[in-house]
Write a structure and sequence with these properties.
By secondary structure, the chain is of the alpha/beta class. It has 14 helices and 12 strands. The site of nicotinamide-adenine-dinucleotide has 24 residues, from helix 7 and strand 7.
Length: about 450
């Protein structure tokens, strides 16, 4: 019997993004001379680190750390949210920016990837403190963001109000020019687009509908009649719960940072939401069983929607996931080790870069609307969102089957391209989606050529 301590799982999000990239590279076409191109494509183009002095309500000055990473602009200007969260650091923002590059390529919007964040605890800050952090962050970024260079959006603990402050700050610094396109996810009266706040969850539902219709989850024919669990009851998770219930599912568990609420017969979502508004959490909503923050991941259900943050389904708990399909509303919720465990259990994982891309798709519509000085109608947004998400899903599924069917060919090709390297990982939907995305960025770089 071995007494060696188990090798701990590496939960650094940037290392995880690299591992996912490395798993996809053997499946990218035209991989001659791949090493230099891969390095160029994976590493961020620019990393901005800022120290932000902010006067707090008690009159004291606090210094916050802010980051903006522009990952890759091969296919267009940078695009990606800004998050306010205590765990924000450079490697997390680099990973999130990388996933944005792949996401924009998977769904076919002409953006590259970017992301930003400020290390802070917004749950302990007043509205005024959050506004001052936002303004100082955007002012310090200066021309590192712009309507044609890098366009922020909401993410964890930022919302339409934050986007209005971002727009206002940028506009004050660039008067006499039209700058609505500098940020998306704005309020409707300030150049926002109908359907942006529900876009991530709605897009997820379109992906799931298409995937089930294609028969990719053997035990599930449609959303109607399924049991759903959601971790994270914020923008992405709360809307996902309501939208999936609207499609005939029963939501059996939801959760937030403080814990979860479960009822095997189905939650009354309106009551849970009212309880969350009144108490700040879904925990102890009437008629529910109390769960821990990771509890919703382990309940009996058919569809599991992680919608909180990275590294929630890991080596430690993947074996306890009971769903037939995990569809990632959050970015990076499933670790590479957990991916393998879920695959071995026959659980289908729909990767973040496809599943939650509805947000960036509607952000793209908002940006187009702003540049055109137009106002789109909600039915136009929904029609185009559905078409984009369905097409992207079909593309990923087609690639997935091609990679699996031709695994031996890819393996032999990889042995020639990278002698001595291990065999490519057997394809799953994440590898297929990443290979599609990386291939598109690779092609764009190739067509542009290496400057000078
Ligand atoms: P949000 O701030 O609106 O909600 C976050 C939710 O997660 C809250 O309910 C919070 O209580 C919960 N949470 C935070 N820390 C937790 C923890 N340690 N354990 C359990 N729950 C926790 O944020 P959001 O915009 O809904 O984003 C959620 C996820 O979805 C993030 O990974 C984000 O990157 C991703 N995402 C969001 C969008 C979007 O348009 N908002 C688009 C694509 C992806």
């Amino acid at each position: 019997m071995s007494h060696a301590a188990p090798v701990p799982e590496d939960l650094n999000p940037h290392h995880i993004a690299r591992l996912q990239f490395d798993r996809a590279v053997p499946y990218v076409d035209d991989i001659e001379g791949w090493e230099g191109i891969a390095e160029w494509l994976f590493e961020p183009e620019r990393v901005v680190k800022l120290t932000l002095p902010v006067v707090m309500d008690d009159g004291r000055v606090r210094a916050f750390h802010g980051y903006r990473v522009l990952h890759n602009t091969a296919r267009g200007p940078g695009k990606g949210g800004i998050r306010f969260y205590p765990a924000v650091d450079e490697d997390e923002v680099k990973a999130l920016a990388t996933w944005m590059t792949w996401k924009c390529a998977v769904v076919g919007v002409p953006f590259g990837g970017a992301k930003g964040g400020v290390q802070c605890d917004p749950t302990r800050m007043s509205v005024g403190e959050k506004r001052r952090v936002t303004r100082r962050f955007i002012a310090s970024l200066g021309d590192d963001i712009g309507p044609h260079t890098d366009i922020p959006a909401p993410d964890m603990y930022t919302n339409a109000e934050t986007m209005a402050w971002i727009y206002d700050t940028y506009q004050m610094m660039h008067p006499h020019t039209a700058n609505l396109g500098v940020v998306t996810g704005k309020p409707l009266d300030l150049g926002g687009i109908p359907g942006r706040s529900t876009a991530t969850a709605q897009g997820l539902a379109y992906v799931l509908e298409r995937l089930l219709a294609l028969g990719e989850v053997p035990t599930l024919g449609s959303i109607a009649g399924t049991r759903v669990a959601v971790q994270g009851f914020g923008n992405a998770g709360r809307h996902a719960a309501f939208i999936l219930r609207g499609l005939g599912a029963t939501v059996v568990a939801v959760g937030d940072v403080k814990g979860g609420a479960a009822n095997a017969d189905g939650l009354n979502l309106e009551e849970v939401e009212a309880h969350q508004k009144a108490t700040g959490s879904v925990v102890k909503a009437p008629g529910t069983r109390v769960l821990g923050p990771r509890g919703p991941l382990e309940v009996e259900c058919d569809i599991l929607v992680p919608a909180a943050l990275e590294n929630q389904i890991t080596l430690e708990n993947a074996d306890r996931v009971k769903a037939a399909v995990v569809i990632e509303a959050a970015n990076g919720p499933t670790t590479p080790a957990a991916d393998r465990i879920l695959a071995d259990k026959g659980i289908v994982v729909v990767p973040d870069i496809l599943a939650n891309a509805g947000g960036v798709v509607v952000s793209y519509f908002e940006w187009v609307q702003n540049l055109d000085n137009e106002e789109w109608e909600e039915h136009t947004v929904q029609k185009r969102l559905r078409a984009k998400m369905q097409r992207a899903t079909e593309g990923v599924v087609m690639t997935y089957h091609r990679l699996r069917d031709r695994y031996d060919e890819y393996r032999q090709r990889w042995q020639q391209a990278a002698p001595g390297a291990p065999d490519p990982a057997f394809p799953d939907l994440r590898i297929a989606a990443t290979a599609n995305a990386v291939g598109r960025c690779w092609t764009a770089l190739d067509q542009r050529g290496v400057w000078p």
